[in-house]
Amino acid sequence: MFRIKSDKPLNKSVAEEIEYVSDRLDKVRMLFDMETEDERIEAIIYEEKALSLRLDLLLRKAKEDKEITPLYPCPPPFSS
Prior knowledge:
Blueprint (H helix, E strand, L loop, with lengths): L1 E3 L7 H23 L3 H29 L1 E3 L10
Antiparallel strand pairs: 1-2
């Protein structure tokens, strides 16, 4: 998912947590597609938001600490 620019190893706990949160986020998104009850859909939306925020925080921390970069190119922003 990410490449480390420096020779220093990425903090294992941060890397493991990034992997865990990413996997959990994928599973929550699959759950959203399958769920039909309004209350559960709302709970899934809140969980997805919390996981997204956590992943953003972890990625920022990893980038600051070890200068990681995505292995895939980011798409260009939408043009108006």
